[in-house]
Amino acid sequence: MAENGEGLGTVPEHERILQEIESTDTACVGPTLRSVYDDQPNAHKKFMEKLDACIRNHDKEIEKMCNFHHQGFVDAITELLKVRTDAEKLKVQVTDTNRKFQDAGKEVIVQTEDIIRCRIQQRNITTVVEKLQLCLPVLEMYSKLKEQMSAKRYYSALKTMEQLENVYFPRVSQYRFCQLMIENLPKLREDIKEISMSDLKDFLESIRKHSDKIGETAMKQAQQQKTFSVALQKQNRVQFGKNMHFNDRIPEERNEVELKRAFEEEDENEEEVLTVQDLVDFSPVYRCLHIYSVLGDEETFENYYRKQRKKQARLVLQPQSNMHETVDGYRRYFTQIVGFFVVEDHILHVTQGLVTRAYTDELWNMALSKIIAVLRAHSSYCTDPDLVLELKNLIVLFADTLQGYGFPVNRLFDLLFEIRDQYNETLLKKWAGVFRDIFEEDNYSPIPIVNEEEYKVVISKFPFQDPDLEKQSFPKKFPMSQSVPHIYIQVKEFIYASLKFSESLHRSSTEIDDMLRKSTNLLLTRTLSSCLLNLIRKPHIGLTELVQIIINTTHLEQACRYLEDFITNITNISQETVHTTRLYGLSTFKDARHAAEGEIYTKLNQKIDEFVQLADYDWTMSEPDGRASGYLMDLINFLRSIFQVFTHLPTNSNDHAAMPGKVAQTACMSACQHLSTSLMQMLLDSELKQISMGAVQQFNLDVIQCELFASSEPVPGFQGDTLQLAFIDLRQLLDLFMVWDWSTYLADYGQPASKYLRVNPNTALTLLEKMKDTSKKNNIFAQFRKNDRDKQKLIETVVKQLRSLVNGMSQHT
After folding, report:
1. What Pfam families does the database record attribute to this sequence (predicted)?
2. Crossing angle of helices 529-537/543-558, nearest 10°?
3. Cα(62)–Cα(448) distance, rounded to whole angstroms?
4. Left if phi > 0, otherwise alpha if psi is -120 to 50, otherwise beta: which for 299?
5. pLDDT at residue 614 greater than cutoff 50
């Protein structure tokens, strides 16, 4: 029962499973079938039985349905067989129709293919035309680029390249020819850079070669402008200037001629004015700058340009070794430098950034230091003042030219002050030779004049004023010699020469006046003074010449005030202006006079010595000749003639040494004293061993002539017997021996009122011993004569006493 109960329970379950199998997709049958095996035992078997029953039921249903539809199927087959026959007929017809259609369509197909091919060709042509229209501008631009390259229009070529790259190449970048063009452009750019750089190098070489021509033109223009300005200034000065001294007047006609010449030169050169653009083609620089700017490599170009120009600057600044020998050497040096900086100034103003003001200032400062060093070194070799003056003019023109282009030139004018000192030195050397020649050619005698014309000629050369001389009738003589007006003229020429250097230095008239006075002072105190002293010391200059030199220096000294007025006039300085520098002519000529006076005394004493050396005394004579020695009389006559010359010395209350008679008195006193000393030395000469009384008497005659000469007042102005006192030592000594007044001498020795106060015991002893020896040798029989024996004893006694006096003097000393 239980089994029946379980069997009843599983039947509905098996039916459910079969329904699921029938209704479920085959892929999902697995879980359903698994549930069959998961149920009670024997469920599988029962399920299979149930499944077989279900299959049999379905087969029965299928058979029923087939039986139901079989007649309809048979009918359909029968109809289909009928249709097959019609279908075959239709097939034949279709095939025939197709064949006919194919035969009819073959020509259409051929024509259609031709039309298609033409349409394709037409489309291709249209495409080609479109592409060609796109490529033609590129090719035209590239062709234009080639033409520009051939025509050396490199800046335009670079612009064309930019258009190709930015506009045209992007449109045809897919074509191979475009790629070839794109690849070729960098090479073209490099070619342009190289070509433009080559042009720049040629330009740099060209301006290096032509810089002297550029500088010459610039300096010429500056000179024309300067000449015109100076001419106008001189015209104004002529109109408003002051009249100068009649001896120192500058011809005004010369100023008018110079002004006229300046205007004529200005008119002649007005149409010939050239600029730096006329002389130099700067297009290579512009092209190269633009090209490098377009290429974005402007810095490289600027660095290269500046580097090369600095090298050229060093070459330009390097002078030739013999530059100092001629002015042309300096001119070439300056024109090259001016040409260099004129080009730089032009580049500075017409380009943007190629050169800057800081760069040109740096380059100029470097060049200026080099220029100053070169000029300082080479100018030191110049010994010709004319060359130094031309160098100064070149430096001034050089400075003015570059100053016109904005370059600072103050240091050049400072250098000119150094060169001015050197110029003055060369002038002093030149004028030293001029003065020497004047002194050599002078005859040192007063200037004779025989008529009014000659008088005016001398007055026009030298400012001499003497009312007494003007009143005298012709012929007459100027007191000075010919060298005085020549010296005065040469001093003025020196002032003119010094003024030439001071001009154009951009200094005030007061400063120029001060410079001229200092230069003139150097000429007077150093050059002229040295020449005068050398002249005075020359052996061939005699006493007469020395006297004339004193006269000449006096007149030159008086002319110094005219020289001061002359300097004031040529510098246009007001007379009321207080000058810190005065001319030192007074001290210069005073020193020369003192030297001449000293040389007079020296030469006079030398002449006396020459006469004294002619003395030929017989020191052993027993009796005198009764007349003075011939050499002494000749000497006295010589002194008289010499002192007569001294009466021509001029009057100058400011200089006592040059007053009439003062020099003569000093010379006369010096001559007498020297003559007295020479005669005394002759008596006391150590080589003279013996002197007889006769020789002493003869010597006394000569001294008497000397005393007579002194008392004859050879030079006026001596008071009393002042001049005779020069021989007082000789007189007292000779009187002592001729009178043989030893008792008085020995008794009064040392007394102020002694008759033989000027006789020195040592001198008396020396002379007495010489006479003692003479007495011994010449008086062989003196011992047999009582008077002679007494005299000999007296001499011995006097000698002893004199020796005691000499020894006492030595101990006291």
Report:
1. EXOC6_Sec15_N, Sec15_C
2. 170
3. 189
4. alpha
5. yes
Task: Report which secondary-structure segment, H or E, holds 476.
Answer: strand 476-478
Cα–Cα distance, 806 to 296 (Å, whole number) = 115
Rounded Cα distance, 438 and 435, in Å: 5
Mean pLDDT value across the chain:
81
d(CA 57, CA 730): 210
Q: At which residue do the structure tokens 């000659």 appear?
A: 454
> Could you report the per-residue pLDDT of 686-703, keeping only the tens digit for each?
888 888 889 899 999 999
CB burial readout 330-339, b (16+ within 10 A) else e: bbbbbbbbbb
Helices and strands of the chain, counted as H and E runs: 28, 2
Residue 536 has a CB neighbour count (10 Å cut-off) of: 24
Distance CA 700, CA 372 (A): 78
Q: Cβ neighbours of residue 412 under 8 Å, at least 6 residues apart?
A: 368, 371, 372, 395, 398, 399
Share of the chain above pLDDT 90, in %: 8
- Summarised one tens digit per residue, pLDDT across range 523-560 is 888 888 889 889 888 888 887 888 888 888 888 888 88
Q: Which amino acid would we find at residue 96?
A: D
243 sits in the region (left: phi over 0; alpha: psi -120 to 50; else beta) called beta
**DSSP one-letter string for 6-19:** HHHHHHHHHHHHHH
What is the reported pTM? 0.66
Asked if 728 and 736 touch (Cβ cutoff 8 Å), the reply is no
* Cα gap 149→334, rounded to integer Å: 41
Instruction: Tokens for 75, please give them.
Output: 């009918």
The arithmetic mean of pLDDT across residues 88-94, rounded, is 89
Q: How far is 812 from 807, CA to CA, in rounded Å?
A: 8
Q: Give dist(CA 588, CA 240) in Å, integer.
A: 36
Task: Give yes or no for a contact between 701 and 674, defined as CB atoms under 8 angstroms apart.
Answer: no
Burial 749-777 (b: 16+ CB within 10 A, else e): beeeeeebeebebebbbbbbbbbbebbee
Span 333-359, mean pLDDT? 85
Residue 714 tokens, joined:
């050879």
In whole angstroms, what is the distance from residue 379 CA to residue 395 CA?
11
In a 13 Å sphere around the CA of 396, the CA atoms on its Cβ side amount to 21
Q: Distance (Å, rounded) from C-alpha 347 to C-alpha 216?
A: 19
In the prediction, which pLDDT does 85 show?
83
Query: In this structure, what token pair is assigned to residue 571?
Result: 């510098």
3-state SS class at 540: coil
Q: What is the pLDDT of residues 722-750, one digit of tens each?
A: 888 889 999 999 998 888 888 888 888 88
* pLDDT digit string, tens, across residues 391-432: 888 888 888 888 888 888 888 888 888 888 888 888 899 999
Task: Judge contact between 24 and 32, C-beta under 8 A.
Answer: yes
Tokens 């024997």: give the residue.
42
